[in-house]
Specification:
This protein is mostly helical. It has two domains: 1-38, no CATH class; 46-77. It is 84% helix and 0% strand. The longest helix has 29 residues, at 47-75. The mean pLDDT is 83.
Length: 83
């Protein structure tokens, strides 16, 4: 702020306080923004693949649960085994 009070430009103040020119500061800011939103863009571009993958996982879990229930039912002594 002292540089601006003494009649310096914004570029001079940024260079003195941050060690960066305004162009370099803007470039870093833009890359920071794109890095923060990168995952959202990725999710948007691959939505169908992600949904298909999640549906596949849910199907596998359902099949495994069904098999486990069947095995547990057959292992129990009960009415099904007595004929």
């Amino acid at each position: 702020m002292g540089t601006l009070e003494n009649g310096g430009t914004i570029n001079d103040a940024a260079n003195k306080s941050l060690g960066l020119t305004m162009a370099a500061l803007e470039g870093k800011w833009a890359s920071h923004l794109s890095a923060r939103l990168g995952w959202l863009v990725y999710m948007g571009n691959n939505l169908y693949e992600i949904l298909f993958f999640l549906a596949s996982l849910m199907t596998i879990v359902a099949v495994v649960r069904t098999i486990v229930k069947r095995v547990a039912r057959r292992a129990r002594p009960g009415k099904e085994d007595e004929g």
